[in-house]
Amino acid sequence: MTDHTLERYATGPAGLPVVGLDDIREAREVLRGVAIHTPMEESRWLSAFTGGPVHLKAENLQRTGSFKIRGAYLRISRLSEEERANGVVAASAGNHAQGVALAAGLLGIRSTVFMPEGAPIPKENATRGYGADVIFHGRYLEDALARAREFADQTGAVLIHPFDHPDVVCGQGTAGLEILEQAPDVRTVLVPTGGGGLLAGIAIAVKALRPDVRVVGVQAEGAAAYPASLAAGAPVALTSMQTMADGIAVGRPGDLPFAAVRDHVDDMLTVSEDSLSRALLALVERAKLVVEPAGAAAVAAILDAPQAFETPAVAVLSGGNIDPVLLGKVIRQGMAAAGRYLYLRVCIPDLPGGLATLLSEIGDAGANILEVAHERISPSLTLHEVEVGIQMETRGAAHAARLVERLRERGYRLDP
Fold it and tell me: Domain of life here (predicted)?
């Protein structure tokens, strides 16, 4: 079936549709009353960290918990009656799934969503709650997307691609218009990036109105398809991915977003799993905002290099749909990465009161002991020693360093 929605767009040199500012403005009118004009607030702790104003664009507070409703609704709203009759199909790890399910439900259209195995349970449940049929297939998004294409061919359902369609890029680009209105003096915009739909849309809108603003994409190190693709001059597929940031775990950039990113985006950065954990923990603690790992990517980039971005800066929080179990794990990892957890192996005399004295020293230093384990057999121990492994909670890296120094001053031998 011919995609008649492409007729509204100009065609670029490579035959790809070209999204422009007027297209995004038109999309905004369609989305009025559907997508929320999400809040933006200055983050005082990030601003103090960078030395200039940093604002958080809270797309985690958007309907369905991410920006995806913007593009999904615009795309589905433009289907013909014939196309609507056959329903829609999508592939997603969760956020696009929810956007498609809600948009289809609002428009009275049947929806089917293919999810990769291991997609977060809350995202699956929410997608079903919005009325979609959910089917699991494959390990990665690309596997689910291939099955969704097969389903579309077999049933006539219209594939709603998560990022590689001009309507989707236009819808996501409406967030860019809001950013410029909410932070008119912005100098840098940082955007979490998977397939590139959000980044492409925001970059097109921002550069059309403010070409002086620096636009930066941020990917997870374990799923960073854009750096190699940009270097090669064309989308290049990753052979494997490993990241907790399922919302941006995309193995190949979309053709349309890639072209827009290549032409309009200034930098593409990557952040580690530890950086994502630290950023997520900081957002919970300091901003009182719950985000998923993908949604914390822009903040992670700022925390990694606070002086690298001209301010005022805007960090887009792209989503907040996180499994509570994963949230607990990420918070613990973030605390460890921030030096809030400390594990020490300490040699003490194997005498009555030896352990109690050590624990008193740690308590007097203000650390909270979480776990204690004895080791009596080790080549490094003398006949009259015992090794104690202690897991504790500290107030941060500086506090942990002072605790270590205190124990050494008291004559304790710490094994690395």
Answer: Bacteria
